[in-house]
Request: fold
Amino acid sequence: MKNMGIIVNKDEEKNSRLTDRINADLREKMSETSKIATDPDLAEDSEYVKDMKKTGKFGWVWIVLIVLAIISLVVILI
Reply:
């Protein structure tokens, strides 16, 4: 019976060390991802979008005009 208690204690020690290592790794990964999450996605820094402008506050007007043009074409053709 005494040997069984020693084996169980050793297994618990190994498990607790393994758990500590896993927790430390997870904490490290979380800190890395939190740094990335606070940074922008850097898509605006790429060469492709370097000279492009953002849509203004009246961009929705273009959508309305396009929809109205499509509706008027449909009415004319019917």
User: Anything to note?
Assistant: The radius of gyration is 31 Å.
